[in-house]
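Q: Structure tokens for this one, please.
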Amino acid sequence: MKKKSLILIVAGMSVIVASQFITHFVSTSDFLGGALLGIGIGIIFLGLVRLKPKSAK
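A: Here is the predicted structure, written as tokens:
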């Protein structure tokens, strides 16, 4: 389970870095830059939520 979470976190960071490179070197709309940034943040958030230990019932 931890391995999948770490993969999600790394993938989210990669999407954010790629979006920064794309918006720096290519003229894109604000919507595209914001959408890519939001997708990256969402993937990181999913990875962090999956890392959280389950509470005992």
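A few notes: The radius of gyration is 14 Å. Residues 2-51 form one domain.
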